[in-house]
Amino acid sequence: MRAVLQRVREASVEVEGRVVGAIEEPGLLALVGVTHTDDAATAHRLAAKIWGLRILDGEKSCSDVGAPLLVVSQFTLYADTRKGRRPSWSAAAPGHLAEPLVDEVAAELRRLGATVATGVFGADMRVALVNDGPVTLIVDV
Length: 141
Hints:
The chain is of the alpha/beta class. It has a single domain (2-140), classed as D-tyrosyl-tRNA(Tyr) deacylase (D-tyrosyl-trna(Tyr) Deacylase, Chain: A, 3-Layer(bba) Sandwich). 24% of the residues lie in helices and 36% in strands. The chain has helices at residues 40-52, 62-65, 95-111, and strands spanning 2-15, 18-23, 27-33, 69-73, 116-118, 125-140. Strands 1, 2, 3, 4, 5 and 6 form a six-stranded mixed sheet that branches. Helix 1 packs across helix 3. The N and C termini lie close together (6 Å).
């Protein structure tokens, strides 16, 4: 699994003109991609890594300060752009495999004590954020 984490002041995701998930205070936006070899254990490792990373103000983690998270599925994180001008998506897991694993990341974060908002898997989403820092990390597990 792969995530792009952005430290944010606030973030939201909109589907068909309606906000479906938002965090309105400092926290993290996690764009999450799934590949073919990922499983529930991988989702749990990613959630634990996200929850514990010390990238908030004062080198604190979400677990230290109870910061909220917005988790959004993002299959394009597994794009292969090495050849030509058209990305290949072959490394991204198909939706029927990826969706439950993105859901598992959010569920595991909640089990760890996080306040989690989410997008809608497979929807055409509009993600808005106020990046803080900016701090943006790529996390592979």
